[in-house]
Design a protein that fits this description.
By secondary structure, the chain is an alpha+beta fold. The protein has a domain of 70 residues. The chain is 38% helix and 10% strand. Helix 2 packs across helix 3.
Length: 116
């Protein structure tokens, strides 16, 4: 988990590391988990921002949109789903697209379609 991940505008923590250092973080996470078990979520709202890509050799790569959840929700997402990331890799699961950028997704889906 990225401890320096950016906050959402409604977060009271500056990053994940600050959440984990908060003595109340376990209670915040526990309450959010209970909400999720009931099919509710006060923090299950994505925030989207534009992000410029790094330049390579002076050439502009462009930009993309990044969507992310509130810090406690990202913590829960990582807690329960991070173990599944490896299973989405194409070399493990033939239909997997994990680790690929959206710009490569179309080519990957085309490869899968041709192989079926």
């Amino acid at each position: 988990m990225n401890n320096i991940g950016a906050p959402n505008v409604l977060d009271r923590w500056k990053n994940v590391g600050e959440l984990l250092q908060d003595p109340e973080h376990q209670e915040v996470v526990r309450k959010l988990e209970e909400e999720l078990k009931e099919g509710k979520s006060s923090l299950g709202i994505f925030r989207a921002i534009g992000k410029r890509e790094k330049k390579k050799h002076g050439e502009m790569k462009g930009s993309r949109m990044v969507a992310y959840l509130h810090i406690p929700m990202r913590y829960i997402e990582s807690k329960y789903l991070s173990c599944l990331t490896g299973l989405t890799k194409p070399d493990i699961l033939p239909m997997g697209v994990g680790g690929l950028g959206l710009h490569d997704l179309g080519m990957r889906l085309n490869e899968i379609w041709k192989s079926v």
